[in-house]
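ok so heres the complex, two chains, lmk if somethin looks off
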Amino acid sequence: MKRLFLSLCLVVLAAITVACSGAAADNPASAGPVDPNAPVITAQNMAFSPTTLDVTANKAFSLTLDNRDGAPHNVAIYTDSSASSSISVGEIVSSNKSTQQVPALKPGTYFFRCDVHHDMTGTINAK
Amino acid sequence: MALRSADRALSPVDVALRVAIVGLALSTGYIHSTLGGVLFTLNAIGYLVAAVAMVIPLPLAVRYRWVVRLGLMGYAATTIIGWAIQGPYYTTAYIAKAIEVVLITLLAIDFARMDGNPVTVIRNEVADLQAKFGRRSATNSSNA
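and the predicted structre for the whole thing:
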């Protein structure tokens, strides 16, 4: 009986410990290196800024997410707003920056969003 | 008729299970509260309310604790299914889902210990309701 009680207490303690460090699971050390010349998308107050980004077509580039929210965000680029075909999916970070490598994009319009909060969206124009 | 969960005293194992369930519900609720956005915040509030409903000593809550157990199991399962459909798939989410799987398991054990077979419980409740309404309509017709 005591053993069962102790086991359950351990399970709960472990869950609470892990839950409280849950946000820290996406720790700063795991974020990618920040390129100072990379275009920057800022996430603040659960919104991206800018929501439209112009990039050079047929040229790979680095894209930096500056997440100023405590909530976790990333930038995931898709071929269109159905978000069924991804081109570049950035790391999910909280209160931190991360840089992702985006492959060369053919001229056109691309959709990006936060994979955690699907209402945070924007457009990339490759010209 | 078998004793309802509301009619029998809690053993130390029952208490341990209840503490574990509340702890796990609060843990996954806390994780959801850190994610921001309306949906996650509502989800966190849902877990908080369910955790309170699991232990609050109000007669109505005690009487219908079985509904709370089933409801919380369904709620956690819905959360897992919702996540499986739309993600995101990253460390914190995996931790929250693992907690929810353990939560559902402990709720099932708690239900089996306290209430027995869910089908029987629901059947008994329906019979109780029918008896209550039958009595009420009989009283009304005798008063008329």
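quick notes: Helices of chain B lie at 12-33, 38-55, 59-63, 65-86, 91-114, 118-143. thats all i got rn
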